[in-house]
Amino acid sequence: MNKKIEEFLTVKNIVIASLIAAIYATTTILLAPISYGPIQVRVAEALTLLPYLWPQAIPGLFIGCLISNFAGGFGLIDVVFGSLATLLAALVTSRMPNPYLAALPPVIFNALIVGGYLSVLAKMPFLYTAMYVGLGEIIACGFLGIPLIIFLEKKFIKEKRER
Questions:
Q1: First-to-last CA distance in the chain?
Q2: pTM attached to this predicted model
Q3: In a domain, 23, yes or no
Q4: pLDDT tens for residues 41-58?
Q5: How many domains does the chain have?
Q6: Burial class of residue 97, CB neighbours in 10 A (0-12, 13-18, 19+)
Q7: Range(s) of the domain holding residue 129
Q8: Does residue 162 lie in a domain region?
Q9: I need a labelling partner for 159 at 20 to 30 A (CA). Which of 62, 67, 80, 82 fits?
């Protein structure tokens, strides 16, 4: 097995990813009335900033979103493309230089990808669904995610990692 993959697949990292997946899925499903649809604020999306601090969070976010989207009412298209949007956002977020810029990838990827297929499924203009999804992401990532990351960074991060 590749050395880099072996280093990533430690028990600790698997547990971290599992916990993040569970928190993401549970939060989304418990807050289902506001977590799904063309007009949504998916509170769990605040967690999509975690890869800024810990790249180990990426698989947990992807799996948590996958589980959440299975529980939602938009079918396989949401499972595949919604989860892909979260995965792409998490990968790009892990490369961002500060928490403020780390909030942009989830907003952009979800507004474009999720907004795109929701416009078809909900029979609404793309501009509206992209704006509504983007606004929900701004609320989740900007007002919840950024303060969360700043707090976690001050509390748990001793030294900055290379980006």
A1: 25
A2: 0.93
A3: yes
A4: 999 999 999 999 999 999
A5: 1
A6: exposed
A7: 3-156
A8: no
A9: 62
Structural domain includes residue 163: no
- 114: which 2 tokens? 């999720």
Closest CA to 94 of 106, 85, 84, 83: 106
Helix (H) or strand (E) holding 69: helix 57-71
Whether 80 contacts 37, CB under 8 Å: no
Cβ–Cβ contacts within 10 Å for residue 15, how many?
A: 12
Give me 137's structure tokens: 């992401």
Cβ count near 80 (within 10 Å) = 13
62-90 pLDDT per residue, tens:
999 999 999 998 999 999 999 999 999 99
pLDDT in tens, 128-139: 999 999 999 999
Residue 110 near residue 137 (C-beta atoms within 8 A): yes
Mention every residue, 6+ apart, whose C-beta is less than 8 A from residue 44.
Answer: 23, 24, 25, 27, 28, 31, 35, 64, 68, 140
- Of 149, 121, 152, the C-alpha closest to 40 is 121
